[in-house]
Amino acid sequence: MDTLGGAEFAPEITYLNTASCGLLPRRSAAAVRALAELNGTGRLGSGSFETVDAARASFARLTGVPTERVAVGSAVAVHVGLVSASLPTGAEVLFPEGDFSSVINPFAVRGDLKLRYAPLEDLAEAVRPGTALVAFSAVQSADGRTADLAAVRAAAAAHGARTLVDTTQSAGWLAVDPGAYDYTVTGGFKFLVCPRGTSFLTVREEAQDSLVPLHAGWVSGGDIWASTYGPVERLADSARRFDEPVSFLSYHGAAESLALMEEIGTDAVYAHNTALAARFREGLTGLGHDPVPGDSPIVSVPRLTHRHPDLERAEVAVSVRAGYLRVAFHLYNSTSDVDRVLDVLAG
Fold first, then answer.
1. How far is Cα 246 from Cα 70, in angstroms, rounded to an integer?
2. DSSP secondary structure letter of residue 287
């Protein structure tokens, strides 16, 4: 199986670590360099709001949500913090055990919320009367397991709980409908192959009034150029009111990355990534290993962390997380990459 994206990617090693950070397409790296050079000449200010809005619109099309419901920012933890700040004292928040810290810690540091945890497979059953919010990742960072999205959504609706879903490890290869959840948060620098410093928040229309735009600056104004001094008289009517002031360098790259992901399409990436992961899981089983089951392109293997140095020496980039050797396949990988990592592990 060949790669997707053609000449847009040029890895110099066997790169199987997208669950940590995706590779930048050539066009995205070129956009960042071009803006950085212009920043040094005085011929352009810090960057283009039109390009930021192009990235926002591209993310909206990729995920199937209206552009007016997408806010942009720098990091998932900042967006989750906004949701955390909206909860009243004593509110109960339910999480899967061992979910990513950026989903949990903004709630934990408040100190006045009731936090509960349940195994991922039991998350829907753990929702109960009085649960204010269920916060969880669509795909777990540590081991690639996928949440039962429909079951959790139904349980939350039955008990009147809001939902917050982190799609950082799924956006780009797995279709998750943001319209089905009160909030979604997405770090763009993994499977969406954007630069670090790009993050997207979606807010369901009926949930917008529950959030206070705590970090609203002039860019959150209805008319940004009329909002530069003094209190902002009118915030944007859309989710743009929740925007953080963005890194233009990151978003100039992100606009190009997201355009490429639109050209390829989520369905094609899903088929490509999961086929490579299935080949890898089959190969691991043949070698006597027991990978975490599933069809996620994130494949985690227990009792293999000691082989990480061997893979590094062989210039195969993977990661170690939560006691697993973690391998992640994406559009710039091919069957030769699968065979390469299996050959090293067989040695």
1. 14
2. T
